[in-house]
Amino acid sequence: MAARAGKVPGRAWVVVFAGTIVNLCLGILYAWSVWKQALVYPNEKMVQEMAGHAMTGINEGWHYLNNAQASTPFSLAVMIFALSMIPGGRIHDRFGPKFGATVGGLFLAAGCIIAGLMKSYTGLIIGFGIFGGIGMGIGYAAPTPAALKWFGPHKRGLIAGLVVGGYGGAALYISPLGKWLITAFGISGSFIGLGILFAAVIIVAAQFLSWPPQGYVPPGVNASAKKTAATTGKDWTAGEMLRTWQFYALVVLFIGSTQSGLLIIANAAGILNTAATGIPFLVANAWILASFGGLVNASGRVGTGVYSDKIGRDNAYAINCGVSALCLASMPWVMASGNIVLLFIVVGIAYWQYGGGLSLLPSYTADFYGSKHLGVNYGLVFIGWGFGFFMARLAGTIEDITGSLDYAFYLSAGILVAMVLLSRVTKKPVPR
Asked: Relative to the CA of 362, which of 109, 136, 233, 354 has its CA 20 to 30 Å away?
């Protein structure tokens, strides 16, 4: 069944909007630096000495962590998120996006509440790292494949960007909201309050996710396929996809674009604290950089999706990573200079590149392997995003040893340069 008069039905846009709302809740991951700042002793010179000491006042029952420990729940959530995308994709392909998003939302809500109630490093690992990671993975696997099924290849970049833009944009409101909740109700209150909020919103939004009716053909699909050669003309199963070298190239490309973004996201508040030492307002409100990053992250997903539809995925990927590599390599100098305007520009470009990767890779997967099995296929490719966690964890260790993130920035920039080269040789697989 083709869409009437060549127009995308209104139901398709409802699915896009609902998917964006679901991702706006799942994206608490991108505001983690606000909690990291609350969990680490505020005097950087005494972080190691104070690790393990009990907090007082509104956070009584909690103990301070060092930088590496405070990065671990985030890194673990990223890895489990990625691994959960595989069963999440199977749940989506078998039971539909409504069920998958609801299950994911309930896991995330339970994880936040567990973290808040346990008041410990172990609670953060179990609650945010494990339960939260599972919830994010299963929930995130539902909206994008569901939305892409309603649209042709000529709009894949745009639609993927809009849906995943919700996940990236979450930090825009969760960062200041989380900071306010921590100040008013403590670390525990912030986790419990957000857990309840997410459960309610995701359960409602998930009810509006759906697949197109059987036989549905997106409008303009034939013309767009001719114009852009955007597909291989075959819907590959997961087994068939795993036998192509391009699948492994996409996983590596995902690792490369992800590691730099997670490095910035996990340390955004600390980066602003270091650069804005002489500006008390910014030091006291370091969440501003994380919130700004959320806006650019979301914009990068939509913007990159739009121009990748026009200039090609590989060209968009190469441009994003090349420019971001230059910015990351200059980050130590920018932070030392104390130039806040330049800092926001450089960090913004890094966020844009990261967001763009999360728009490009689902589109790459649909272009290379078709949309029929996109849930599980993209879940497998998404493993690359999970492996990108290594840089956030490694950066915490580097910071504890050297006192700065300089070497982490240089290493991340070098990886991005290698990814530019890989993107130039990765082309669509040819069906047998």
From this structure: 109
Q: Which of 7, 430, 16, 8 minimizes the C-alpha distance to 231?
A: 430
The answer to whether the beta carbons of residues 73 and 305 sit under 8 Å apart is no
* Contact (CB, 8 A) for 292 and 269: no
In this structure, the dihedral spanned by the alpha carbons of residues 340, 343, 345 and 349, taken in order and rounded to 10 degrees, is: -160
Q: Which band of pLDDT confidence, cut at 50, 70 and 90, is reported for residue 399?
A: confident
Scan for tokens 């993975």, then name that residue: 137
Q: How many residues does the chain have?
A: 432
Burial of 13 (C-beta count, 10 Å sphere; 0-12/13-18/19+): middle
CATH H-level, domain 9-425: superfamily: MFS general substrate transporter like domains (1.20.1250.20)
Q: How far apart are CA 75 and CA 132, in angstroms?
A: 12
Of 14-28, 84-98, 237-251, the one with minimum mean pLDDT is 84-98
Between 177-181, 268-272, 325-329, the lowest mean confidence (pLDDT) is in 268-272
Q: How does the average pLDDT of the chain come out, rounded?
A: 86
Reported confidence tier of residue 232, pLDDT bands at 50, 70, 90:
low
- Residue 371's φ and ψ, nearest 5 degrees, are -105, -15
**What CA–CA distance (Å, rounded) separates 165 from 179?**
22
